[in-house]
């Protein structure tokens, strides 16, 4: 394999740049050329390609976002769009791909592999940490730290005003961010999509908390089934006895300089993705399982559900009393 294409797709995540850097430098180290595909699948369809040298990825390991840009592409969801993308790859002589993104990105690349015989390796780049086949995704650690720091600040206001805060964090389908943020910020309650939120029981908890705690923080994952922080707050309203406020952290969780942990994870995964392509692997995602690099068929990364750690859930419940 002589030419490798790399792209970032779906939501940006801190550490994507560190991963691109690792792909480029390991590709060059192994005598390959590395081509950056800009704006994800949209750029692939348009032939938006750029040669990447070792120096072109200097000074990016510390930067959030993605220098390759990212995009959502409706065209790529159609067979015609993918055929155009495959033709562009062939024209540019790109023989293997490193796809950095989440489950949507992987579903797209699997279609490209099956329909056009392209070789590709997935790298989990998403703050949600919701992919099966890896303990951590690139960007997750930074997002948790960003949310935790924001909640530390909210805590000051909550304590000063004797208030209850409902803080909504990202996580449409999974409560990984919410649970880790809840534990690390000492939240009084965590509401996540994986478990049913019993509104009555929560109201009761809060009424009891009010007798001993003048302020409280409830972390709500955006995909929580009661409809998110505003909706949950509205359902409990004044009955719990607290004056309350709602704060949605939103996109602040996506940006920022990646943590050391994300930079290292991204570097390891980028290196491993190129190694895998050169070994002849395809249609797998690079993951980190118990601290070791592991490869999982791409299909399994979204068709199998990654389980939430029950011990962490128990820990959050016990320590919030
Ligand atoms: P995040 O987890 O951060 O949202 P993601 O990779 O899941 O990232 P998506 O927007 O779901 O982000 O997917 C990125 C792109 O992948 C889509 O815009 C689309 O072009 C392509 N894609 C997603 N699902 C499919 C599919 N089933 N078939 C073909 N292409 C797809």
Approximate shape: elongated
Query: What's the helix count?
Result: 11
Beta-strand fraction estimate: 15-25%
The Rg value, from CA coordinates, equals 21 Å
SSE string, helices as H and strands as E: EHEHEHEHEHEHEHEHEHEEHH
CATH topology of the largest domain: Rossmann fold
Ends: how far apart?
Answer: 57 Å
Q: Provide mean pLDDT, rounded.
A: 96
Which CATH top level class of the largest domain fits? Answer: Alpha Beta
Low-confidence stretches: none
The total tally of domains equals: 2
Task: Decide which structural class fits the backbone.
Answer: alpha/beta
Strand order of the largest sheet: 3-2-1-4-5-10-11
> Which ligands appear in the coordinates?
adenosine-5'-triphosphate
Secondary structure: number of strands? 11
Q: Name the quaternary structure.
A: single chain
Structure description:
Helix content is 42%, strand content 19%. By secondary structure, the chain is an alpha/beta fold. The protein has a seven-stranded mixed beta sheet with strand order 3-2-1-4-5-10-11, sandwiched between helices. Strands 7-8-6-9 form a four-stranded parallel beta sheet, sandwiched between helices. Helix 2 crosses helix 3 (79-91) and helix 5 (140-161) packs across helix 6. The protein is elongated, with a radius of gyration of 21 Å.
Features of the shown structure:
elongated; Rossmann fold; 11 strands; 42% helix; single chain; four-stranded parallel β-sheet; 321 residues; binds adenosine-5'-triphosphate; alpha/beta; seven-stranded mixed β-sheet
